[in-house]
Amino acid sequence: MNVSLLLILLLVGAIVTYLAGDKLASKVALFFGLASLGCTIVLLNHYNLGENISFITRWITQPNVSFALKADGLSLAMVLLTTALTPIIIFSSFGNEYKNSKAFYALILFMSFAMTGTFLASDGLLYYIFWELALIPIYFIALIWGNGDAEDRKKAVVKFFIYTLAGSLFMLVAFVYLYLKAGSFLIEDLYKLNLSSSEQLWIFLAFFLAYAIKIPLIPFHTWQANVYQKAPTVGTMLLSGIMLKMGLYSVIRWQLPLAPLAAKEYLPVLIGIGIAGVIYGSIVALRQKDLKKLLAYSSLAHVGLISAGTYTLTLDGLRGSVLQMIAHGFVVVGLFFVAEIIFRRYETRTIAEMGGIRAQTPKFTSLFLLLVLASVALPTTFNFVGEFTVLYSLSQINVWFAVLGGTTIILGAYYMLKMFQYTMLGETNKRIFADVTANEGITLVLIVAVLFFFGLYPKPIIDLITPSLEEILTQINRIN
Amino acid sequence: MNTLIAIIGLGVLCLLFEILDFRKAIIPITIIGLLGVLGLTISEYNAPNSYYNNMIVVNKFSVCFSSLFIVLTIFLVALSHNFYENHQSKLSDFIAIKIFLLCGAVAMVSFGNLAMFFLGIEVLSISLYILAASNRMNLKSNEAGMKYFLMGSFASGIILFGICMIYGAMGTFDIAEISEMSQSAELPIWFPIGIVLVTIGMFFKVAAVPFHFWAPDVYEGSPALTTATMSTLAKVVAMATLYKLLSAMNADINYGFQMVIVVISIASMTVGNIMALKQANVKRMLAFSGVSHAGFMLMTLLSITTSAGSLLYYATAYSLAGIAAFSVILYVCKNQNNEDITNFHGLGKTNPLLAAVLTGALLSMAGIPIFAGFFAKLVLFSQTIQAGYLVVVIAAVINSIISVGYYFKLILAMYGKEPNETRTGKPFLIYAVAIVALVLNVIIGLFPSVILDLLA
Known about the structure:
The structure holds two protein chains of two kinds.
Chain A: H1 4-20, H2 25-48, E1 55-60, E2 65-69, H3 73-92, H4 101-120, H5 124-133, H6 135-145, H7 150-182, H8 187-191, H9 197-214, H10 224-230, H11 233-258, H12 260-265, H13 267-286, H14 291-310, H15 315-346, H16 362-375, H17 382-397, H18 399-424, H19 438-456, H20 459-476
Antiparallel strand pairs in A: 1-2
Helix pairs in contact in A: 1-2, 1-4, 2-3, 2-4, 3-4, 3-11, 3-15, 3-20, 4-5, 4-6, 4-11, 5-7, 6-7, 7-9, 7-10, 9-11, 10-14, 11-14, 11-15, 11-20, 13-14, 13-18, 14-15, 14-17, 14-18, 15-16, 15-17, 15-19, 15-20, 16-18, 16-19, 17-18, 17-19
Chain B: H1 2-20, H2 26-43, E1 49-51, E2 56-58, H3 60-83, H4 91-109, H5 114-132, H6 139-170, H7 175-181, H8 190-206, H9 214-221, H10 224-248, H11 255-277, H12 282-298, H13 308-332, H14 347-350, H15 352-366, H16 372-386, H17 390-416, H18 428-446, H19 449-452
Antiparallel strand pairs in B: 1-2
Enzyme class (chain B): translocase
Main location (chain B): membrane
GO cellular component, one term (chain B): plasma membrane
């Protein structure tokens, strides 16, 4: 049994969903989502028992490309995030009606397939192919099923596509350069290269462009808020919950070990860019009137902190980032789902038009509050574990980084609680707010449960990712 | 050699059908005949040979490219059925001309003598002039034919002049002898001048900047099927021939000449892409996109000793995507008097299958993975970096990004706009050609070795 099974399952799922027709599509997609989650758990089990679940076979002779999937703790953690969120995201969409839903759900599964592939691929070209492949489904999801004015949406989506493609093409050039030096795209062979520091700088920059756009880091974030707002909620969840993590994961897996000298030389700048994102995102979030846009900017602030954590090049920093990636994935999906639940009832995303919902639906309010608290990293939530570790690693580099990065907690608490206050509290709203349905309730409870469970007991995930992070760290520190 | 004779036989047969009043069978029989010729050609893959005092040289290069041309012709002939529905009386002429065009194409990649090369290029060009003007009641088609004829014959003149110069310098038309002599230290000045003139003539044929001005007008004015022929078959033929000329004559590709290629390649990519951004007519847009693809293919000349395989791959990927795209265009723009983007509005809703095919074809041209266009660019980039031309690759990358802009304009029109008319009928051959071409494209995208190793 190896990880290729998971990819086959997701791909077959996408095809079967499309063939199942509009009526059954959502259920079939959910089934395959859950099946892939089950498959991931079984694989994790095998991995923990020390079995080899990697998969490698020759694909193309000239150029020398292998179909290589390597499963270590880090990639499995990210795959788990993907396969756990995919069924949740599919399930969360059950309250909505989509035209041509067979294509819609097939695209979701196909995107999940591509993202899983990105996390598993250990051959540079294969990785690149999956990376690009993930872009096509989200493009169509946002374009066809998005909301708002069609012309504006088109502009936002095309900008997003061209931005990300532009970044990744430079990454491709970097891979081609590395290939010509190493004679192979396999990550092990690329790790063995001894590149001069100027070569590393160029490689680093090429990768940086791709990842900074995808994550997004300041000043490459301009596509983000608009696309989040215009995409359907499912698309926003896929983008913010999983796709951003592709960029962050790639930094750890590809960029840092391949060009450590450049990363070390520009360490303060890189951390600075991350922290600038934290502060900028938080301040802009304060001023947002649209709920989805506010969440988009809060996401920008969080990923800024995560990337600052990875660029510390310490074990704590890397570990904290990975933990925070997973925690953020869940919490952001939950928050966007809350926005969707409110939209289903009030048909608005403008914060000023909400308010006074609490009295009508106390259950929903408390779940929302728990999500808000998790988002601002309250102790006992998973986000706290991640954020605290990252801040700790930042303080080891320079206390001021930690102080500036820590503003995320203060500012975050401020804008999130203010948002909560304006949407939920206040005089009871005259418009009727129907209580959450069973489906919606289950989704929210699941997400909150995951956040609190791992907040109290993060050990399984820490144990899973630490060995592979240590391995990567040795690779980063190999030349001093 | 057998290929060439068989194709000519098939062409004559097509003309005889007209006399025998046997029109209905003409397309099936031609396709079957071409499939037979394809088999015949492939059987020569491992049997290199030369005929008539080196007039024709059959080697792996010529076999691979001839097979590609035959496959493209099969697609084009299959598309003719629907396209010439209202011109039944001239059907056999059109098909026969396409077969003769293929003759010229095959001669152009299997010549061993410059005289044969010139014969091939004229057969190909004259067939194309006729096809361009074939819609003779249409002013634009007339204009296209005239323009193409004037420009093309001008280019042919330059090529002929170049060949004379080479003959003057070397005293022979034979490629092998020229190649041998070109290695001597002292070359008469006429030789490089001749090479430059022939190259310029070929740049006309591939529509590289600054010799591209004819392309958009001719593409727009010609009947859509002829445009498809020009932008897939004719372009690939000219590119392969240029490659063969320069590599076979062992023309002294010195630094200066390479710089010229670098400049022309970058200029073609950039001008083609930027002009394509502004076009509202799909045929014009694809004409400029073709100019930029010519720029990409010219990059193979920078590592001429090793890049035959990647040229074949790029040509295959590009032309298959082109065939798939044009078959959708033929379907959409049938009974329309123009090929504006507005015709494509809402195709994603009215005809999801063909919209998906066109999307796939455009994604392949833009170089998005799993489609063959991606690997074509990848192989090209790695070869060019290896040859030491990182600048060209960076320019090519920037151009790939620009190209997404206009390819996606069409995709957006198909999925983002409301349909403005309904189309009925599902012409089987158009569907078949579109799907088969795209599937072939994806297959060679997933297994690039199939093509890449042929000329390794």
